[in-house]
Design a protein that fits this description.
The protein is of the alpha+beta class and 327 residues long. Helices cover 24% and strands 8% of the residues. It has one domain. The longest helix is centred in the N-terminal third of the chain and has 51 residues. A hairpin with a 4-residue loop joins strand 7 and strand 8.
Length: 327
């Protein structure tokens, strides 16, 4: 018997079914791919945290120092070559941890990739062939991993008192190390999280992430601790949404990078990693009620109105008395 061919109606029905299945399955596949990248980024975050813990085992439980010399000597200078100031080159925690990570690739968030080429091989000095100041330089590898540390509590940058009157005092800031044994609750103290360069360059990360609600305490002329500010609204702090009917996504929060459904992966001082929405990461603060400061008061430019409201829920402090009485 001769087989009957498909009618036009039957073909259209089949095409419609395929289109419906594709509409259902493609978002599922996309979500699965994003979840895989989130998991991969969490793995990198965990490896960085574990490397920092191993570093501490060799250095009296100290957290990796943010910068091991004055900021002015953070130059593209070869090992063993003194800078123009007659000082050894300053290195920051990403390069100090290389003996423990054994790989530069773990500093790359797989969801973004190494677009500028910062981590493509060993860092180069300005005299080296193939040197690129915006990519594979010592200065770049010291500052631009995709994972930033909770530096304000674990290894703050501080300006020596004698240098506070200099024209550019931050040139002299150095890392001040703290130890794991000073941590009251290692499982509740944030270590590293995904970062970007102050919310305007997602291709590069930044080696430090500002803890929420610290801007008003540190950003003034009387305190010798340093807090990073990128020049934009709220780039020195976290700012909540004015519209409280939203999911709580902030306008800006320092250099922490939200890329996974309004949240990020966070490693903790005990080595575990957890995904958290922004509001959860800012627990114990008025994050959802905070708005950008207008800059009318000293030290508020680029900050916000966010305050710590419950120290017992705050996830960034090394212990309950770290900055008590300092300000």
């Amino acid at each position: 018997m001769k087989r009957k061919a498909f009618t036009l109606i039957e073909l259209l029905v089949v095409i419609a079914i395929i289109a419906i299945l594709a509409a259902i399955l493609f978002p599922v596949f996309a979500q699965a791919k994003k979840a895989a990248k989130q998991s991969s980024s969490a793995s990198n975050n965990r490896q960085v945290a574990l490397a920092a813990i191993m570093y501490g085992a060799d250095y009296d439980d100290a957290f990796p120092i943010m910068a091991n010399g004055p900021w002015r000597s953070l130059k593209n200078t070869r090992d063993g070559v003194l800078t123009a100031y007659g000082e050894e080159r300053t290195d920051c925690w990403p390069l100090l941890l290389l003996n423990y990570t054994k790989s530069r690739e773990i500093y790359i968030d797989p969801n973004r990739g190494d677009i500028p080429g910062i981590w493509q091989g060993p860092a180069l000095a300005s005299q080296d062939a193939g040197y690129n100041a915006l990519a594979n330089a010592y200065r770049g590898q010291n500052r631009f991993p995709h994972y930033g540390v909770n530096y304000l509590f674990l290894s703050p940058l501080r300006i020596p008192a004698a240098k506070m009157t200099e024209t550019t005092p931050t040139n002299f800031m150095v890392g001040e190390s703290r130890t794991q044994t000073q941590t009251n609750e290692p499982a509740s103290t944030i270590f590293y999280t995904e970062s970007d360069l102050f919310n305007f360059d997602t291709t590069r990360g930044y080696f430090g992430v500002n803890a929420p609600a610290m801007w008003e305490n540190i950003a003034n002329d009387d305190v010798d601790y340093v807090i990073f500010w990128g020049g934009g609204t709220c780039s020195g702090d976290w700012c909540g949404d004015i519209d409280l009917t939203t999911t709580g996504r902030q306008k800006s929060h320092s250099s922490a990078h939200e890329e996974f459904n309004d949240g990020s992966n966070y490693s903790f001082v005990d080595g575990h990693v957890k995904y958290m929405k922004d509001a959860k990461a800012a627990s114990g603060t008025s994050f959802l009620l905070s708005t950008p400061s207008d800059g009318s008061a000293p030290g508020t430019l680029g900050g916000s109105t966010i305050q710590i409201t419950d120290e017992n829920k705050y996830l960034w402090d090394l212990n309950d008395y770290y900055y008590e009485g300092l300000f």
